[in-house]
Structure formats: structure tokens, C-alpha cells
Write a structure and sequence with these properties.
The protein is α+β, with helices and mostly antiparallel strands. The chain has a single domain, classed as Alpha-Beta Plaits (2-Layer Sandwich), CATH 3.30.70. Helix content is 33%, strand content 38%. The chain has four helices and five strands; from the N terminus they run E-H-H-E-E-H-E-E-H. Strands 2-3-1-5-4 form a five-stranded antiparallel sheet, with helices on both faces.
């Protein structure tokens, strides 16, 4: 028997956080998800963080610079989270300073209702 897809009225609603990520090491899309989950679990605990429904939708390398003979990688990331948990996720991610002994800084640029509008509004404007 084939599984039925939930109609849109019964699906969970999501918001998309557009993040500015600066790191000492290169990060892939697969690396970003554990970093985000780790920050949320450390700040809020497992019970509260389980409601966040985090997922990395897009991950772009914007620039690579060198400061004090060390490379700094700047990324823009689109992170999906539950609609009612946006502020909690933003707080938890802003507290991250290190990941695996490497410096990392995550700032939220904006919040969007769809991936496409988030990219058009926050990522394309910054690059121009």
C-alpha cells in the first residue's frame, strides 16, 4: 500500500533563518547541521531542542579572507526551523564561539517564510 502525502493544512509550518557564518576552517553543508544542533542542545537541552526541527537547506561560500596569517571563511546558510521556535534557535546559535577547537561566529541576517524569498531578499542583496 502506498503512503499518502499529508495535505498542506496538516503539515508543520516552518520559517527559514538566513545565517552569516564565519569560521577558521572550511565548513560543508553536512558540517553545519551538527554545529546548529550542538549549539541548541547546549543552550536549551535535549527536551526543548527536539521541537526545533532543524535542517540546513542551502549553504554558500561568500568569501575567504586572511587576517593575522589565518584564513577566515564567510558563509551564508539557510536553516529551516519550526515557526514557533525561531527566537530560541537564534539565541542558541548566537552563543556559539568554538566548534572542535576552531573559532566560529553565527549571526542571523533575517527570517523568511520560504527558501526562495530568503535567498532573494537577504543573500542576493548583500552580494551586490
Amino acid at each position: 500500500m502506498k503512503l499518502k502525502v499529508l495535505p498542506p493544512t496538516l503539515r508543520k509550518n516552518h520559517h527559514y533563518l538566513i545565517l552569516d557564518v564565519k569560521s577558521e576552517v572550511e565548513l560543508s553543508k553536512e558540517d553545519m547541521l551538527p554545529i546548529c544542533w550542538d549549539g541548541c542542545i547546549r543552550y536549551w537541552g535535549e527536551n526543548h531542542s527536539s521541537n526545533f526541527d532543524l535542517w540546513v537547506m542551502r549553504h554558500y561560500l561568500v568569501s575567504e579572507t586572511i587576517q593575522n596569517n589565518e584564513p577566515i571563511f564567510n558563509y551564508k546558510t539557510v536553516l529551516r526551523c519550526g515557526r514557533s521556535c525561531c527566537d530560541d534557535v537564534r539565541v542558541a546559535l548566537s552563543t556559539l564561539k568554538r566548534q572542535n577547537r576552531n573559532k566560529i561566529a553565527i549571526n542571523t541576517i533575517g527570517i523568511s517564510g520560504t527558501v526562495k524569498s530568503g535567498i532573494n531578499k537577504f543573500i542576493d542583496e548583500i552580494d551586490e
